[in-house]
Amino acid sequence: MPQRTMHALSAPAHHVPAAKARPTGRLRLRPLAEATTPAVRGVRVTLLLAATTLMCLADLWMTLLYATSIGMIESNPFARAVMEHNSPQILTGWKLATMVLSNGILFWARRLTYAEVATWFCFLTMVGLSVHWLNYASEVSSFTAELSTLAMSEDPRWVNMNP
Questions:
Q1: Any residues with CB less than 8 A from the CB of 34 and at least 6 apart, and which?
Q2: pTM for the full model?
Q3: Lowest mean pLDDT among 5-9, 42-46, 138-142
């Protein structure tokens, strides 16, 4: 055998060529191709859950802001039922409990495909709701007459919590 081949065969099994060596630090940046693999699914799900949680907290804040001041239409019948108790504390507890439960389940199952799909669904739903809140907040001042009419109507979707 030629000398070069003998040298390659005698290299230790743990030898990794320098071009393929990976950083050994705790935080290492992964190439995009590696970031989309199932092996990194847990990290993706965790980041999506963190972003979803921030949007859920913003949704809670906006709901409390409008429901305890001028009132608002609540399309979610479960949230409307909770808001019928006329208590921001009960609404906050309910929202936080559902967030902790749902995020906890998805975090627990974060390495499974269905958990990632469900997390993406939750994330995109909250993005849509956040866009809705941004539009509502920027245009609510032009709806004074309509809001007064809704407040006087018998529309069951209208909520106004006066603690």
A1: 40
A2: 0.71
A3: 5-9
CA distance 91 to 79: 8
As a whole number, mean pLDDT of residues 37-47 equals 87
In whole angstroms, what is the distance from residue 104 CA to residue 126 CA? 17
Q: How many helices (H) and strands (E) does the chain have?
A: 7, 2
Q: Please give the distance of CA 7 from its chain centroid, rounded to a whole number.
A: 53
How far apart are the C-alpha atoms of 109 and 103, rounded to whole Å?
10
- Burial profile 134-150: b = 16 or more Cβ within 10 angstroms, e = fewer: eeeeeeeeeeeeebeeb
CA distance 150 to 66: 14
pLDDT, tens only, 89-127: 999 999 999 999 999 999 999 999 999 999 999 999 999
- Structure tokens given for 138: 């920027």
Measured distance CA(60)–CA(92) in Å, rounded:
7
